[in-house]
Amino acid sequence: MTKPNESQLASAVMMIRPVRFESNPLTAASNRFQGKNDADPVEQQTAAADEFDALVAALRDVGVEVIVIDDTHEPHTPDSIFPNNWISMHADGRVVLYPMEAENRRTERRMDIVEHLGDAAGRQIAEVVDLSPHENSGHHLEGTGSMVLDRANRVAYACISTRTHLDPLGDFAQRMGYDVVAFEAVDSSGVPIYHTNVLMNIGEEIAVICADAIPRQDQREAVLARLHEDGHEIVLLSYAQLDAFAGNMLELRNKAGERVLAMSQQAYDSLDEEQRAILASKSRIISVAINSIESSAGGSVRCMLAEVHLPAEGNEGS
Question: How far apart are CA 262 and CA 267, in angstroms?
C-alpha cells in the first residue's frame, strides 16, 4: 500500500457542542482526571457550553476553520464534547470509527455527522473504516485519544490501558499504513494513564511529552528515540504539568498557512518561560480557560478537537 502524503497539521477541526454535558460515571474508573467538579449537571452543562463557545471563537479569531455540530438530547452522551475518541479523518478520504470502552459513549458514533462532513461541509469521503466491532471482543481503541498520530511519518504512539488494546491498534495500523510504538504509562501515583494524548502531543516540528510517565526505561528511550529520529524537537513536561493538561495541546494551521497551538489556560499557566518560548517560536499560542470541562470530564482542548484532514471537494490531499 502506498502511504499517502499527509500533513501533520489540520486546517479545520470538527467540534460537538454539548447539550447534556456532565461527568460520566461510566468513565470514572479509568480516568483519574475527571470528577473534580461538585456542580450539579445543569451547572456543568451551562459552564461547558460557555467554555465551548469561547474555544470556538478563539480558534476562528486566529483563522482556523471550525465545523460545529450540535449534539442531540437523546441518547444521553455526556462526553460528546470529545469527538476525537470516536472518529478520525484522513487525507486519503478515509474516516475511521473506533471501539469505545464506556457503553454510553458508543452512541456518540453518528453516521449523520459523517454524512454532514461530506455534504454540508464539502469534504470528500472515500471510505468509512469501522473498527467498532472490536467492542464485541471487549477490545477498545479510542481514536486520537488512545493514539497520538505522527501523520507525516506514519507512526501511531499508544500507551496501553483499558481503553487502548493491541488488537484494534494493530488493525488500525495495518489498514491505515502506520507503524506502532506502544508503551506503558502511569500517573504520579502509578495508575495507568487512560489516554495517550494526556501525556504527549506531536506537532510539525515539536513533540511535547511527559517522559517521566513512561516507567520502563527501554520503552521511554524507544519513544524518545523515534521522536528524535523523525526530526522532532522534544519539550519535556513534568508530572505537575501533565496534571494541568499541558500534554493535551494540538497544533493546527490557519487559513494563512500559519501554525496555531491550542491549549487550555490551565495548561499554558503550568508551562515555564523556557517552554513557552520554545513553543511560541514555532506557533502562535492560543489558550482558553475550560476549567469546568477539565474538572468535570477529565479532558482538555485537544480532546475537543477532531482534526478534519479530509480533502475538500475538488481538491486532493489534506
Answer: 10
